[in-house]
Amino acid sequence: MLHYARFRPRLTKLVFPWLFLGLASAGISFAATYKLSDWLNYTIWVTAGVFIFILFLLPALRYSATYFDVHAGGLSLRLGIGSAKRVELDWSSIASISATALKGIVIRTKEENEYLLRGYANQKAIVAELNRVRGGK
Q1: From CA 6, how far away is CA 80, in angstroms rounded?
Q2: Are the CB atoms for 81 and 61 separated by under 8 Å?
Q3: Is 28 exposed, middle or buried (0-12, 13-18, 19+ CB in 10 A)?
Q4: Would you call 44 exposed, middle or buried from its count of C-beta atoms within 10 A (0-12, 13-18, 19+)?
Q5: Which of 3, 18, 43, 137 reaches 20 to 30 Å from 32, CA-CA?
Q6: Cβ neighbours of residue 114 under 8 Å, at least 6 residues apart?
Q7: pTM of the complete model beyond 0.70
Q8: What is the mean pLDDT of residues 37-46?
């Protein structure tokens, strides 16, 4: 099967997770300059670890697992951590592909399912290219 492209959301979706990682690192670094009791030191490290896990690691994993592939047979959508939501669409099962300013890329199937792809740059260009590859339908 001929693979054409892989599309990922904008990298700017990771700006806030990187800021949270920097703030947590700065907080730990600041607290390390003072002699604190053990319980307070452990509390700071555990709190920072939880914040890093929730506010950095989970969004980074979600970003890395969200993409869609365009191949000769159709589209492969992977939406979420661990690609838990994985959808394979044939070109013949797709009724329409469109872009809206507020929603994103909307893929409608002939079975009346609708898939929304958010956060992609140049959505109109992507939709035009997908419709061209699909056969201009």
Answers
A1: 15
A2: yes
A3: middle
A4: middle
A5: 18
A6: 106, 107, 108
A7: yes
A8: 93
Look at residues 48, 41, 129, 135 and name the one whose alpha carbon lies nearest to residue 90.
135
pLDDT of residue 133: 86
DSSP per residue over 49-85, as a string?
HHHHIIIIIHHHHHHHT-EEEEETTEEEEE-SGGG-S
Distance between CA atoms of residues 79 and 62, nearest Å: 8
Amino acid (1-letter code) at residue 72: A
- Predicted confidence at residue 102, as pLDDT, reads 81
43: part of which helix (H) or strand (E)? helix 38-52
Length of the chain: 137
For residue 104, what are the contacts with CB-CB under 8 A and spacing of at least 6? Answer: 116, 117, 118, 119, 120, 123
Q: Is 107 exposed, middle or buried (0-12, 13-18, 19+ CB in 10 A)?
A: buried
